[in-house]
Amino acid sequence: MRKNLLNKTVSIAAAAALTGSFLTGCGSAEAASAANEEAKAAESVAEVSEEVKEEGSQESSTETAEAAEAESADAGLLADIKERGYIVVGTEGTWSPYTYHDDNDELVGFEVEVAKYIADYIGVDVQFSETVWSSMFASLDAGQIDIVVNGVSYSEERAEKYDFSEPYNYSQYAILTLADNDEINSLEDAKGKTAANDPTSSIGKFAEESGAVLDEVGEAAQAISEVKNGRADLTFSPVTVFADYLKNHPEDADKFKVIVVTDPEPSAYVPVVKGNEALVSVINEALDQAKEDGTLSELALKYFDVDTTKGE
Questions:
Q1: Do domains 85-167+267-304 and 173-262 have the same CATH topology?
Q2: What is the pLDDT of residues 141-190, one digit of tens each?
Q3: Angle, in degrees to the nearest 10, between helices 110-122 and 295-304
């Protein structure tokens, strides 16, 4: 449209110039007529110029609107969170020392405090939705929770549906089994043995990949109970979970042995439903600040007695 209008402008301008040259060699009558034609041509040029101006203004407005719409779409969930004034965080509440209830029945733990830090950085309150692990991502998909802060590991399968923050914690997997079980002393010994773990968790998948047969349970405490009562040969979990259990149950210290089977690997990310890049970006900003100001290290030392946030 713009090109056609410009071409029209050029043609009329050329006609006006031609009329001007006509006036040079004509008599007064012809000159008057030509002058009239020149005035009409000038009027047409003005009209077309105005059309071009309006067209340009419309295109500019359209581009501005599209840019605003793109920015709004990118803000997405983050904008909703800021407008409502709180972020809904999915967590288990039964996985000590990551997310659990203390003696006063208050929800506490490493993951809980990380979630609070993220909320504070965004400038909103936090509401926790305590959900069993097997339904955590379904709640995320349904929009019942905004993010999951529960030691979620990255996988290519999950990355098809979710974007992930940068990692903020590292774990070593270990096996817990009865102290007098001489058949289990390494990862290879788990093959064919019964492992009490959640099949929907990354730890449960690791157990299966290691050749173990799953005794399906949903909570760490239940898994340890299965081993203690002889219903399972072993259970897999981060070293910190077993250390925390034995710290809080010293009477069981002689009943179990813990076998570390992996090197430290990134084990905690914040997943967000795809299409919410602005929210992922601000979460990463919060985690970067927590690393720089020492908060993550302090939280790890508080709950694990060792700094697990650097992967060392």
A1: yes
A2: 999 999 999 999 999 999 999 999 999 999 999 999 999 999 999 999 99
A3: 160
Q: Are 203 and 173 in contact (CB under 8 A)?
A: yes
For helices 2-24 and 28-84, angle between their N-to-C axes, nearest 10 degrees: 160
Q: Which residues pair with 147 in a beta bridge?
A: 89
Q: How far is residue 1's CA from residue 55's CA, in Å, rounded to a whole number? A: 8
Which residue ranges make up each domain of the chain? 2-73, 85-167+267-304, 173-262
173-262 classified as CATH 3.40.190.10: yes
Q: Supply the pTM of this predicted model.
A: 0.71
For residue 143, is it left (φ>0), alpha (ψ between -120 and 50) or beta? left
Find out if CATH 3.40.190.10 is the number for domain 85-167+267-304: yes
Q: What are phi and psi of 2, to 5 degrees?
A: -60, -40
pLDDT surpassing 60 at residue 272 = yes
Please state, in angstroms and as integers, the Cα–Cα distance from residue 9 to each residue in 16, 21, 24, 304, following that order. 11, 19, 24, 77
Distance CA 14, CA 253 (A): 99
